[in-house]
């Protein structure tokens, strides 16, 4: 892979539409594009022709309702074909898609809707009630679309699309905005990460060199919709290389997942580290399942434990290739096919990315010296900035370097080794969780006077969310109150953010200026549980 890294050059076209230039081109041939498995295990296969036609009809519906170039549309759909049709349709008309997790609650959705000045919202039956709550507060939203369900005050998107005439779409410039993806922060509300159409084009690098996609592959990336990784590996990447993909609208069960990988004939697999960990815990991993068609496995979201990689290799004879990237960019560092994989290392920079470890002055750190991970230049994978936040955008720069917020060291052979996060964002399973959001939810409960949230080491998830809570007078610590606070957080914010552990304390460590010292609380947890399980890679 050395030659690819040295010879690679970005060749982004002046105009680009993923739907028109990739999907419609693939639709010229009768080829499989998608295998969709419903939560009841029913299966349906879509061709690229099916995908192209459906997304063109969705585009017509949006255009008929006045959604235009540059308008922002919040998409809160689960892992179902309607998510794909909607995202491609918005690409066709030049609208800006804001993918959001289906699990987000009213408070999260209202913030995003107003911060991004959304014109429309696309939702489903499971989150309809949450969005109904925000109608009066979402001041710029004009249209509400519901998929696969009927409700008063909502447009039935899929039914209208079935009757609509196809609309291929516009010819948009590559520097026009395409996505706003919200990512958690440590002390403020979530940040809106802006990407343009060149980002969509650039995802083929990741698919080609890391996922190793070919037109003969069936690729399953298990990422949930609403996250950057779902764009990387579910939608934009594999289809850029002509591969077919799998989408499963069911929860994760290790045995079912392995059954489906076998039965569907998946050849390329991208899973979250937590999923690999839980599968690797099974005593019958290598005896019950044989996966002869699976040829390549990757993982991203946080560091994968060496013992899991070894266990997977013993069971299936395959190495899991770790990768590192962010919502703000793409796959920056990875173990690529053809490289020597050093267990525990992040890998080396991917083609098209000039990545290094830099010091406080922006100079290159010497070998084995810990510093900040930086990206030099303006590759098309790099975000355009944080929406409405020039100060935070500028804070990511140190001279010619974009700083990822993570720290690492580089060995003599150019392999990066992750050290830790430079901020307080918690990486738990496949999720990136800002402590501020959880702390804010806790403070809405009448029993809570103060709270601080940190990541606590966990063997399966890398970290879990732990809350330190100071109670108001008149309230007493109890197991019942722990459960009450956990359920409160699930209602106020997305369920995956709730604190799995709560410790009641008399006070919180603070600086002289009154800022909570989360770093001190993290150190306590590391000392209490041991440092081997701790991780923070995004």
TrEMBL record:
AMP-binding enzyme C-terminal domain residues: 437-515
EC number from the UniProt entry: 6.2.1.1
Domain AMP-dependent synthetase/ligase: 28-387
Spans traversing the lipid bilayer: none
Cited InterPro entries: AMP-bd_C (IPR025110), AMP-bd_C_sf (IPR045851), AMP-dep_synth/lig_dom (IPR000873), ANL_N_sf (IPR042099), Mitochondrial_ACSM (IPR051087)
Record GO biological process: acyl-CoA metabolic process; fatty acid biosynthetic process
Protein keywords: ATP-binding, Ligase, Nucleotide-binding
Example GO molecular function: acetate-CoA ligase activity
Leading EC class: ligase
Homology family: Belongs to the ATP-dependent AMP-binding enzyme family.
Protein name, UniProt field: Putative acyl-coenzyme A synthetase
């Amino acid at each position: 892979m050395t030659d690819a890294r040295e010879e690679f050059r970005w060749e982004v076209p002046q105009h680009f539409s993923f739907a028109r230039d990739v999907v419609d081109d693939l639709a010229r041939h009768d080829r499989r594009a998608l295998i969709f498995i419903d939560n009841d295990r029913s299966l349906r296969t879509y061709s690229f022709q099916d995908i192209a036609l459906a997304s063109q009809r969705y585009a017509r519906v949006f255009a008929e309702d006045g959604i235009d170039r540059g308008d922002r549309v919040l998409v809160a759909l689960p892992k179902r074909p309607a998510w794909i049709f909607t995202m491609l349709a918005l690409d066709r008309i030049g609208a800006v898609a804001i993918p959001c997790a289906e699990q987000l609650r009213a408070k999260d959705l209202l913030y995003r809707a107003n911060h991004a000045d959304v014109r429309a919202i696309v939702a489903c039956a499971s989150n309809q009630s949450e969005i109904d709550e925000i109608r009066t507060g979402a001041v710029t939203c004009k249209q509400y679309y519901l998929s696969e369900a009927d409700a008063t005050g909502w447009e039935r998107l899929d039914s209208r699309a079935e009757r609509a005439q196809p609309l291929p779409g516009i010819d948009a410039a590559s520097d026009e905005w395409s996505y706003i993806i919200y990512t958690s922060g440590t002390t403020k509300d979530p940040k809106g990460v802006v990407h343009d159409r060149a980002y969509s084009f650039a995802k083929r690098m990741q698919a080609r060199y890391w996922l190793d996609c070919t037109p003969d592959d069936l690729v399953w990336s298990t990422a949930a919709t609403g996250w950057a990784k779902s764009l990387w590996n579910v939608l934009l990447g594999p289809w850029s290389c002509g591969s077919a993909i799998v989408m499963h609208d069911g929860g994760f069960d290790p045995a079912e997942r392995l059954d489906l990988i076998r039965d569907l004939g998946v050849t390329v697999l991208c899973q979250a580290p937590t999923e690999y960990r839980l599968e690797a815990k099974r005593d019958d991993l290598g005896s019950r399942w044989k996966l002869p068609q699976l040829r390549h496995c990757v993982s991203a979201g946080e560091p994968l434990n060496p013992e899991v990689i070894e266990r997977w290799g013993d069971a299936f004879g395959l190495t899991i290739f770790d990768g590192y990237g962010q919502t703000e960019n793409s796959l920056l560092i990875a173990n690529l096919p053809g490289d020597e994989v050093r267990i525990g290392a992040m890998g080396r920079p991917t083609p098209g990315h000039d990545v290094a470890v830099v010091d406080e002055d922006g100079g290159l750190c010497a070998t084995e010296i810990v510093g900040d991970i930086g990206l030099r230049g303006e590759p098309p994978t790099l975000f355009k900035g944080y929406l409405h936040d020039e100060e935070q955008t500028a804070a990511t720069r140190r001279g010619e370097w974009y700083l990822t917020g993570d720290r690492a060291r580089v060995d003599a052979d150019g392999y990066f080794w992750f050290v830790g996060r430079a901020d307080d964002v918690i990486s738990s399973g496949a999720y990136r969780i800002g402590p501020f959001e959880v702390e804010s939810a806790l403070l809405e409960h009448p029993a809570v006077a103060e709270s601080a949230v940190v990541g606590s080491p966990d063997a399966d998830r890398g970290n879990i969310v732990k809350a330190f809570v100071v109670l108001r007078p008149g309230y007493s610590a109890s197991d019942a109150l722990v459960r009450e606070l956990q359920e409160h957080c699930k209602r106020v914010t997305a369920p995956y953010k709730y604190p799995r552990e709560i410790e009641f304390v008399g006070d919180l460590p603070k600086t002289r200026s009154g800022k909570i010292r989360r770093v001190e609380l993290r150190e306590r947890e590391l000392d209490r549980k041991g440092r081997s399980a701790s991780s923070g890679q995004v």
